[in-house]
Structures are given as C-alpha cells and as structure tokens.
Amino acid sequence: MKVALAFLAPALVALLALRLIPAAIAVGSSLRHTSLVTGETSFVGLGNYVTLFDDPTFLQSVKVTLVFSLIVNPLQIAVALALAVLYTQKFAGVRSLRSLVILPIAVPPAVSAAIWSVAYRPDGMLNAVLHVLGIPQQPFLTSPQQALWCLIVLLSWIGVGYWMMFLIAGMQDIPRELYEAAGIDGASAWAKFWHVTLPLLRRPLAFVLVADTVSNFLVFAPVQMLTNGGPQGSTNVTMFDIFTRAYSVGDLNLAQAEVMLLVLVVLAVVIVQFRLLRAKD
Amino acid sequence: MLRRTLAALVGLAFALPLLWALSSSLRGTGNLGNSLIPADPTLANYLALLTGGFGRAIANSLLVALATVLIGLAISAAAAFGLSAIRFKGQAVVFGLVVLSFLIPFDAIAIPLATLFRDWNLQNTYAGLILPGLGHGLAIFLLRQFFLAIPAELVEAARIDGLGWFGVFARLYLPLSRPALVSAGLTLFIFQWQAYVWPLLIGTDTAHQLGPIALANMRGQFTIDYGQLFAGSVVLTVIPLAIILRFQRQFTQSIATTGLK
Amino acid sequence: MKFYRVIVAATLAGALAACGSGASGGSDGSSGSSGASRAADAAGPIQFVGPEDPKTFAPVIAGFEAKNPGLKVTYTQVPFDQLNTVLQQRLAAKDDSIDVYTVDQPRVAALATRGFLTDLTALTDKVKSAALPGQYEVNVFRDKLWALPIWTSDQFLFYNTELLEKAGVQPPSSDPAKRWTWEQTVEAGKKAQEKAGAQWAVIPEQIEQFYQLQSLAESLGGGSGITGPEMLTPAITTDGWLKAMTWYHGLFANKLAPRGVGSFQTSPLFSEGKVAFFAGGPWDVGTFAAAKGLKWGVAPYPYFQGGKPVTPTGSWSWGVNPASKKQTAAQKFIEYAALDPEGNLQTTQNTTIIPSSKAAFEKYVPLLDAKAKGVGEIMTYDAEHTAVARPRSVGYIQFEDIMTKAFADIRNGADPKARLGQATQEITTAWKQLR
After folding, report:
1. Distance CA A21, CA B109 (A)
2. Under CATH, which number does the domain B49-258 receive?
C-alpha cells in the first residue's frame, strides 16, 4: 500500500492540482450567474442547468453529438485495427509506409483545418478529383447533410493513424510462437486474427476504445475552423457549443454547467464500456 | 504483393493532403491552386520565416515538449506501475480518479487553471507552460493497460532474486514496455507541440512564445498568406515526424523479441 | 518553496526598480489629463496587447518613446482568432500585465459594463474635436467615454478592368455622386460572367460578417438589427432586413458569388482575376496593387435602388485596463496614438487602414489616393455622409455570433425569413442570460 502510494504520489499531486481542483472550481462556477446589467454575481443553484434544458441550441447539440459519436467511434476503431494488421505484415518498406499513416498526427490542427477547408471548397481539390471520376460536384461543408461526414473524414484522417499506433504496440507484445502454433494447426489468416490477435489485444483495444470515445466527445477545433457549427447547426457538437459559450460569447457560468453535463455523459459511457470489457474477461 | 500495393495506396492517401500543403508552401504568389506541382517554386516563404521570431518559438516548443515527455513519462509510468504491479485496497478509487481526470476537457478547465497559475506566479515561465502537460491521465491509463500484460510470475521471480520495488519498476517493467512508452511519450509530446489556447490564456510574452502561436500570428487580420502559413506548418510538422521516424524502431522491440518470455 | 518565491520576487523587484526608475520618474509629472487623483504609476514598460503584426505598431511606439523619454512600450501580439477570448479571460482575472489593449469598437459597451475599461470621460472634449464624425460616439456607452478611436474603415467597390472591358461594360465612376446600385452591379457582373468568362459576378469581402451585411439592410431602411431603450431587442425581421437577405440569398443561389469560401479568404479570388466586382476595404488597396497582372479600379460602395447609400464603418479603438498599475502612462500612450495627429498617422504607416483623427485623415487621404485614384474622395465623402456604425449594445457579442451563423445558413440556401425568425429567438434567449 505504502509502496504503491509512493509510486502514485507525483501523478496524484499533478492530477489534483492541474485537473481536479480547477474542475471543482468549474463546478462552483456552474452554480453561479453574473448579470451584465448589474455586474453582480449571484448563486443560482441549478439554474444554469435548467436554462440549458430549455435551450434548443443545446438540445440540438446533444443530438448532433450522439449521432456523431455513434458513427465516428466504431468507424475509427475498425479502420485503425485493419490498418494495424496491414502494417504489421512483413514486407519491404512497411515501416516507412506506416509512417505516412501516422504523419497527420504531427500536423498542427490549424493547418489540417486550413488544408481541408480549401480541399472541401465547391471548386476545390476534392471536387476536381470527383470530376475526373465522372461524379457530379458535391457541396461538402455547405450542405447540412454532408458537413458532419466531412468532419468525420477529417478527424479520421488525423486520428486513425494515432489509434493504429497503440494497437501496433500491442501486437508487438503477442508472442510469435502463438501464430506459428496456429499455423501448424492449419488456421486461416482470419482464424489467426480472431483467435490469437484479438483476444491478446484486449487491453490495448480497451484503451483505444475508451480513449477514442473520450477524445471524440471533446473535439471542437476543426468544427470551429471549418463549419462554425453549421450549416443549420448540423455540426454543432456539444463541446463546440461549450467553446462558443465560454470563449466567443463569454458566458462562463453557463458554459461550465454544460461542461459538467458533458462530463457526466462521457463518464456514463466510459463506465458502460468498462463493464462490457470486464464481462468479456 | 497485394498487401504491399494496398499498404502503399493507403499510405499515399494519408500523405496526399500534406504533399499539397508542401507544394503550396513553395508557391510564390501566396495563392492556392489544385495542382500538386507549383508553377514557379520558390523558397521565399521559408526564408521569410527566418526573419520573425519563428525560430525562437520552435526552440521554445521543443524545450517545453521534451521536458514534458521526460518528466511526464516518469510520473505516468510510476503511477501506472502503482496501479498494476502492486495490489492494494482502494486501487479502484485511485484508478477512477485517473479516468475522471481525462474525461474533463482541458480547454474547459483552462480558464480557472489559468487564474490559479497567475496566483502561483507562473506567468512567463517555462514551468507555467510545461506543468499542464504533466497531469496526463490518458498516459497513465495507457501504460497501465500495457503493464497489466506483464506476468505476475515474472515479478515474483524478480522479488525472490532480491530486487526491490523500484528495481522491478526500472529494470523489469520499463525495458519490457518500450512500444507503450514510446506511444505515451508521443501523446505527451503532441499535447505540448499543439498547445495554443493555454499559453495565450496565461499571457505568455514574446520570449516564451510557442510554435503554434507564432504560426497563428502570421495570419493577418485582413489577409491570409497561405504560402507562408504552409511553410510554417511544414516546419512544425517535420519536427515531430523526425521524432516518430526515429522511434519507429522501438516498436519492434518488446516482450515478443527480447527473449525474456 | 515560499521562501524561494520571496527571494525571486525581491530580486525581480530590485532589478525592475534599477532599470525602470526612469519610467516612474517620467510619469510622475501631472501631464496626464485625468491621472491626478490616481496613485503614482508602477515601474516598468507600458504593456500593450493587440492582434496586429509587431511591425504595424513599431512606428507609433517609436514616436511615443521619442516624445516621452523614460517611458517604454512593450507590444505583444495575440492571434486575431483568439484575441477576444484571451482578453476576456485575462481582464476578468484582473491581470495587471495588460495596460493598454485594442478594442473592437462594437464591443465597447460589453467591455465597459464588465468593468474591463477605464473611464476616459475627462477626455471627451478633446476626442470630440479631434476625431472623424461618428468616431467619438462609438466609444461612448451610458454617457461615458471608454476608449479612444484609432482606426476607422470604409468599403469600396473594386472592379476588374479587363473583365469589364471584355464584357463591354462601362466601369462605374469613382464620383460619389454617381454611385452605382447593387442592381446595376449585379447586372454588369452577370454580363462579365457571360461574355468575359468571369467566374464570379459580385463578392462582398466579409461574406458572412455583420460588419458588411448590416449596410445592405440599412440601405433598404431595415435598421441596425437592434432596438429598444436598452438596445436589447432584436429587430432583424423588418422589411428592409428581409429584402436585403433575400437579395443576399440570391447572390449565392444564382452562382453570382461562391459558397464555401470564408470571410477573409475572398480577396485572393479577386487578385487572381476571377471576379468582376469585389466590395472590400482600404486594406485591399495595398494587396491588389501588389497583385501581378491585375488591372483594377475603384468606385463607391453600392446601395439598393430606392434605398439610401449606406457604408460600413468603424474599426479599432484602444482602451486602458482598470487593473493596470500604470494608469497615467497608459493614458498618455493612447492619447498620443489617438489624438496627436502625428501619432495617429504613425499607426497607419505600415498597414492600409484609415486613421480616426481628422488631422491625420487629411494627411492620409493623398497617400492612399496615390495607390488607387479616387479612393481619397470616396473616403472623405463616405465619412461625412454615408457611414453607419454597428449598433451599440451590451449584447452585441452574442448578437454578432448568432448573426454570423444565420448569414452562413442563408448563404448556403436556408430560407431567409425562417432563418431570421430563428435567429430572433436565439438572440432573445441569449440576451435573457445577460440580466
């Protein structure tokens, strides 16, 4: 116990001072309201939370966030897993090709947004490619039906290589003898993946599942730079709504209440994920 | 062969947008085109970077990110060890706190945290820039997942051989977890390399300016010089890329290959 | 730890006192007009925060320092997209490492009510007599003066000479008396699209921004968008607003202007010669003059047929942070930059923007006119006759944020009437929070 705490102490101090204490301050701030007319701050209890549940903008952001999460998480994890399998095969040049997939992580967010905003323009690069393929021009970010998908593509371009990296790190830990043994038993490549790779990849996969879900709940920078939540609120995810309230509009109290609601939702999702993963053990 | 073609095609698809950024950075006029090959390639955009404070900002970013990786990895790995190798009562609660800490969006608590940092006189110090990167629950969680894979028998054997807990940590766990450490280190590095709102919130002066802010400052209020923006971003991309390439090798060294198993 | 901090603080204080004694001496004099009742200034340079490249403010800082030996100014640039956020947070935390900061003029009211600006009412008479028409009023809220005007702006109609020639269109005159209507402009732009292969007919530069689009509604008598005794009642569904937004909607539906290009990403399209008409600001004059192979001219900003000529105006003021410990020196600096003709002119030396001081404006007009003939006359006329500022309201920040999203949606095809109705509701909800 004492030994474990000694190992944990620096991290606990850091987490407490740098995350949990400010979070507690944020909770306090979510229970207050500052009037611009009188300039006074007063305690309003759950008033800000009530306001949010009456606000159509917030309610719509919840809907968008749910749709977004249900699509983006399975998609990214499946693609990351497939790429991890592909890029752990043995052939010449595999390492440098793998680096190309990881490459987008290194790009500053402002730059990836700049690249994609130009690419998605109606007269931009992507439509030029579609034109060559004989596909009609697409509206991309200017359409309420397509904008969210455009963001999902952009986020996957950045994220898939990142999550793949953790899965590859996990795959390197799988003893080669297991594959050799399965090979002697005549198992197909698919059977090897299903019966050897996947079970032994359980823990890294659990990390990727939880971490990817959380980070997709908290994403907002590309929304800010590409769509500003539009068209017609179709990309107004809750984290961006929070960002607008806290930073652009400056209503910190309401924003912190929204943060607390978001954290509660993410917490619930993560608890369910942990339960499911444990049930499988 | 099929695999290789597929791997090459996928890799190319991921790299394509960046190739376009690279080509735009070599364009002279500051305008954009759809082609990948600039008509009149020039290094003017890169030379322009030398005149501003961009070099200084890159150096600052490197310092902050590397310090965060070194200190952050030490803190996170120790914590992950405390959460995996040793069993104790209340472990679940501590782990719960770690998880909770990364569910809280940093950008949301940055505002109260900046006020605390001002009270602690951390404005315009490297410490003020490095510290927020150290409380990284995700890195702890990641390392814990990998540490759990290390067999308990190995620990017992080492203990019987007279190794103390610190010895088990430093001589058994760390060497066995290189891929995980590299991944966690990269996570810490990227967090700091892309730091943008935080340094602005605590009011960082020009001497402590970081790369992403120097990049954003190139965008004027009324105009955008895409050529220079992309040149700056190529520089900001190449550095982490070099680090990723350097550490790729570590990915192949692990329990499976060290023969300890 | 604490002990260590005390030592550091003491050392720092010593060092600052040693090198900053000149500064505090300089500001002891009661030359500051309203600093008499205040405590003496702290030592150290005046710290100035803004979104511009340091090059922009180098001349005015040098000029001020030369005139006031002992006083120094340190400038820190904050990226434009984060400026409001950063100021908001740091001013709320009473951060005394900001003395002077740039104030977006429509935000004066909100900043003043939050206590983020020092009251400068003592300077009222000086500002009234020195500033261009309208540039005093934009800095007043609840009968007090909160900031000093540095820059203002105007909008022009730029045209591509070659495209118009090819299309057989006589270009618009630069004479403000012969101002074109938007209807005329669209007609001519269409011709350029059909006959001269122009990609776009008419592009308003700040394509989704209230700054630019307010003028459309105002020209049709639609009002500023905000009314009421407290200026907290939205009024964006008036006839004028509906008509203006329907026209704006058509601009994109009929492919006269592009979708999917952001507000300040439009000028490169004109530089590349793809656009017949471009409604832009003085800052574009320098950019277009530098564009290779581009032949262009400039005319007054259009208005609607049957409506009245209205031009966007306003830009940046500078204010003093009440938490600053260098009130006297800080005020001295902004007085120099705003009211001293020489100082005000220096702020425009390295950028193309209109100075707010009358005397500086007069010296500035010929300089800009040399770059684009006719601009000077248009600017002078607009400043006196057609300039309409953005509404002054505590709720402007929320209003602008919601309007920007509404404009974007209308541009992308949303029904103007329904979308403006929705925006009215959103603004009403947001403004309830202010109380």
Report:
1. 9
2. 1.10.3720.10
